[in-house]
Amino acid sequence: MSRARTRAYRDGVMAETLATVLFRLKGYRILATRYRSPVGEIDLIATKGARLAFVEVKRRKTYGEAAFAVTAKQKRRIVRAAQYWLASHQNAAGRDIAFDVVLCAPWSLPRHIKNAFAL
Amino acid sequence: MFARVTTVAFEGIEARAVDVQVQISSGMPAFTIVGLPDKAVAESRERVRGALDAIGLALPPKRITVNLAPADLPKEGSHYDLPIALGVMASAGAIAPDAIEGFCVLGELALDGSIAAIAGALPAAIGANAMEKGLICPRPCGAEAAWAASDMPILAPGDLLQLMNHFKGLQTLRRPEPNLEPEGEAMPDLADIKGQETAKRALEVAAAGGHHFLMVGPPGSGKSMLAKRLPSILPPLGPAEMLEVSMIRSLAGDLAGGRIGRNRPFRAPHHSASMAALVGGGSRPRPGEVALAHLGVLFLDELPEFHPQVLDALRQPLESGETVIARANHRIAYPSRVQLVAAMNPCRCGHAGEPGYSCRQGQSCAARYQARISGPLLDRIDLQIEVPAVSAADLVLPRPTEGSAEVRERVAAARAIQTARYESLGLPLVRTNADADGAVLEDVATPDAEGLGLLRDAARTLYLSARGYHRTLRVARTLADLDGAETVSRVHIAEALSYRGETLRRGKMAA
Predict the structure, then answer these.
(1) Which residues, 6+ apart, have CB-to-CB distance to B102 below 8 Å?
(2) Which domains does chain A have, with CATH numbers?
(3) If we measure between CA atoms, which residue out of B259, B269, B183, B255 comes closest to residue B227?
(4) Per-residue model confidence as pLDDT tens digits over A69-109
């Protein structure tokens, strides 16, 4: 991997770790991180009460850039991956499923957007 | 987590109850609408989301399913926004479900939460009244909905917030007041027309008997002027008729300010009108010009310029008094009892038959032009007259003393005689002489011995067809009613025979 890509990868993992810490602080139980399925990947799966959140973490130079980085195609992949995960976790049925986004930017706190998108 | 709201779907001018069922359950967050919604209804999802956002309510991130029952009836139009929004709010607990139970709801939402006007508030209100429910409709539609019944509860909020506050008791919405069109609106008056006494007389006869009316004459002879003055001599609409007319106008969305008027409708579609524009229809059925002219006048200027198929599509509404639109998905009937008034030139250049004028193309020009109108359609027009060109000498004359007001009185008297007659015969469907047919006509319009003699002679020498014979009788009956005469006599028959449209027949024979 080139230097830039290594750096981007490292920053990305860093952001995901930051998001995990944020969710723990908010009282969520982490069910999976960096979940990979044949149909897509999910950065973080966490639950709190009846709420089951599938979280996408985005890191860019600014919050705005990060928010626009979640494309429609990516949303579809996340939803598909979530369905894949749900199929193998029957006890998740009956939860309120939500899709959240965490935006990260350098030298700022991660920002949690609840219910960022739906089907 | 379940709520239901009542709204309506329109089938012609009938409002059918539609149940909006909203269920919120856990699962993948989604917002789906089922129950044969068309594009405008399916898009209501985004408007509901926006409107709820605007008043500070977020759609719950859950699985929201909206079902529009009955599921096999196609749902069209934008008035499903408000019932869907109220259903979502009720099932999410933002408003009490029993608050909306007694109401039929319709309205379109804007993204800022305001409620926009919709078409068809009046038929919906009448439908809701029949279901013994109140009505929630947009504010601009309140005035027309208030006509449906004086005692039914009607809420006409301007936006979603007002409605919520009303339910919470923070604000009361008053019942909207029914709105009447100002009386005595200036209509063109018959006194504006100088000369053309024959045509004016024929117009009066047409008004008195509700007869279809055709004027043939060169350009500039005042045919359109005459036709535009017909509504001014027709009797005003009765209360039940006003409601009927307004229901159709409401469906077409042209009841401005919810004002209901007593003037009879006058529709003058351009001759390029398509079949769908004239008789209604298209994939989304809407009332056409014939239905909009219900109980009023449909004026077709330059009759032969209309597409022949379009004209022939008029035959059924003229015959049965209703337009039936049959499509794969719908079968809809709009009431359309119209009085057809048509005007045409005798030939393409317009001057055939005028003294001292000879057309280069000769007789065949007029024949070809007139052949564009089908015989069956012409057969249905009781009164056919020639309107000669106006000479400058007529224009020098002083203004005629008799205006629309005087003629209207005579017409009203003749109509009163007709109404009394057909009511006593127990025929509620026949309102004027024009509707009388067959045995009824023979009963009421059989002339005295002298008249019968003349009619027999005419039938032989003029080759009257069976339909022509009946037409003559009908017109003669109206002439007798205008005179206040009990039986049809020789003068009436003679005058009726003169309204048979000699020009057209001559043209046909030459062809």
Answers:
(1) B133, B134, B153
(2) 3-113 (3.40.1350.10)
(3) B269
(4) 888 899 999 999 999 999 888 887 778 899 999 999 888 88
| Nearest-angstrom CA–CA distance, B470 and B174 | 56
Of the candidates B398, B415, B396, the residue with the CA atom closest to the CA atom of residue B482 = B415
pTM for the model: 0.82
Architecture in CATH for domain B2-178: 2-Layer Sandwich (3.30)
* B58 inside 8 A of chain A by CB: yes
Question: What ranges do the domains of chain B cover?
Answer: 2-178
Fill in the amino acid letter for B218: P
Taking CB atoms and an 8 Å cutoff, what residues of chain A touch B31?
Answer: 118
d(CA B3, CA B84): 10
Q: How far is A34 from chain B (nearest CA, A)?
A: 21
Could you count the other beta carbons within 10 Å of the beta carbon of residue B138? 23
Chain A residues touching residue B61 (CB < 8 angstroms): 96-98, 114-115, 118
Q: Is A118 close to B26, i.e. CB distance below 8 A?
A: no
Using the Cβ of A27 and the Cβ atoms of chain B, whether some distance falls under 8 Å is answered with no
Nearest residue in chain B measured CA to CA from A115:
B61
Where do we find the tokens 């009332």? B287
